[in-house]
């Protein structure tokens, strides 16, 4: 299905409700907006198969833009609104974007982007003059373009070099904009999301999961309640107010809601919830137990990636029998392999691969054939780089994460980019960036620095390095802690034993927790 189909059948039904403001966009209005966006990109000469980018906060027009790009046959790149201007400019150039649609909320950053990549046109919602997206769209027809065909997102996932890499899949073979896809089937059959769903999305829409799940709910004809920003009590208020039936979270959301005073948690009715999906980061076993005790057995977990190469799934009941598991495969076949790419016995740890299902669309990392090749083994199975094992019944348990990626509050942070910046500082001889355990965010970014002169190590140098990094990194990537060492644990070949550092910080955290 497609929002345009629901616009004909139920034109006044809310497609989107902005949680804080209460602004409501009906299916008829969403259809009109997406048609205007499609007309706009055609008027600018943007053709089927080309690319536009979206960089704005959770905005009432967000889905008007993405559905407009989808029905115009485009690749649409949803860029984090928390990135710096150089980071955004890199993604625009790498993706080949012909247009950037943003908002006045990010004017300062987007002005700098315009200086860095002056050849990429911009429009901004809530912005004045020639950049006004509202004015540009108001001039467009609200009818479909003549050459509608289905487009698809192109989302960026950082790689081992630290630079973000676009996960690019071909446009769907079937050009029908209302075609079904695997996520619609999963949402309906596995998670039980129905056309009458009231779906709460508390996370930034530029992330893969919120974007794709919300658009899937639109395909099914449900209503998406978008939180402009997550606040734990506000989330509970919205569940009660809108009688939310379905939702999607990351473990940090659970932690923050569980830390609310008992009387605050108790005063909101969450009994309407039938499905609370979570993924993106490992959920501590005690946290998930507490959430099931509070909300009931409505938590559903999955393991998957932006790459779309496979999907595991587990219900609350199954998880209570196997705490810590991320479930069994629903799409693809899980293969746990050794360093040679050969499958290992059940219960043995190894790298997790998916043998693709017949209908799996192959992905590639845009402009990075080496990384694309590294994601495959000799059998053609693909991996996100995670390590774990399967039990005898095929349930997957993750024991490590790809290339020591840091997951802080459900956001993926890749250390190499930060390390590359640190080693350029004249007072730094070597640097390693790791994720250290954090009770609120799962992990926090820690930089372990080998100074050029150990006598300079201390708070003043830490402050200097922080000031040096801040203009070059978005806030979520900034180290929360900078420590100094005379020598980092490197092999003579230059390989950094980052695992030793991670284990050290983990052991220190566990000892501190035990001492409390």
Automatic annotation (TrEMBL):
<dbReference type="InterPro" id="IPR025110">
    <property type="entry name" value="AMP-bd_C"/>
</dbReference>
<feature type="domain" description="AMP-dependent synthetase/ligase">
    <location>
        <begin position="6"/>
        <end position="354"/>
    </location>
</feature>
<dbReference type="InterPro" id="IPR020845">
    <property type="entry name" value="AMP-binding_CS"/>
</dbReference>
<dbReference type="InterPro" id="IPR000873">
    <property type="entry name" value="AMP-dep_synth/lig_dom"/>
</dbReference>
<dbReference type="InterPro" id="IPR042099">
    <property type="entry name" value="ANL_N_sf"/>
</dbReference>
<feature type="domain" description="AMP-binding enzyme C-terminal">
    <location>
        <begin position="417"/>
        <end position="495"/>
    </location>
</feature>
<dbReference type="GO" id="GO:0016405">
    <property type="term" value="F:CoA-ligase activity"/>
</dbReference>
<protein>
    <submittedName>
        <fullName>Acyl-CoA synthetase</fullName>
    </submittedName>
</protein>
<dbReference type="Pfam" id="PF00501">
    <property type="entry name" value="AMP-binding"/>
</dbReference>
<dbReference type="InterPro" id="IPR045851">
    <property type="entry name" value="AMP-bd_C_sf"/>
</dbReference>
<dbReference type="Pfam" id="PF13193">
    <property type="entry name" value="AMP-binding_C"/>
</dbReference>
